[in-house]
Amino acid sequence: MPSIVDRPAQRYVAERATLGIPEFPRIADRLPPLIGGVAAQGVVAGAPFFRYRVIHPGTRFTVEAGVPIEGGFTPEEPAFLGELPAGRYVLDTYVGAPDGLAAATESVLAWGAAEGVTWDRREGPDGDEWGCRLEVLRTNPREVPDPTRWVTDLLFRIAG
Which residue among 6, 79, 100, 102 is least crowded, i.e. fewest CB within 10 A of its CB? Predict the structure, then answer.
């Protein structure tokens, strides 16, 4: 069952791509080098995430693969620094393989519609532009190789 949580602003380092679902490994594969780069500079990093910036018509989206950081960090291009905005978020935790995330996301959106939630999103020229929509990866696949046991927090920022 989703809940509403308050989150502070959080700095991060990321890379961005516009792609379809079959191409998703291209951006997902950027997480290990980002984590390694942060660790090499002795910077504290949080759980990696995917931030969905634009949901394009069809099955394409603009997404960032990111890592929260504390402290100073200078990324090498194409990586960049950003900040997740503070605010109220709907949080739901999904346990399972990545192929179930679309259904889990639809469930959260349906819950929000039933509860009268107004999302931090707007219609843009290329599709739905989200203020902050995250999938936070709570499980390290190297430690838990069974994808049916992976834990992912879904976080959607509420408008206002």
Answer: 6
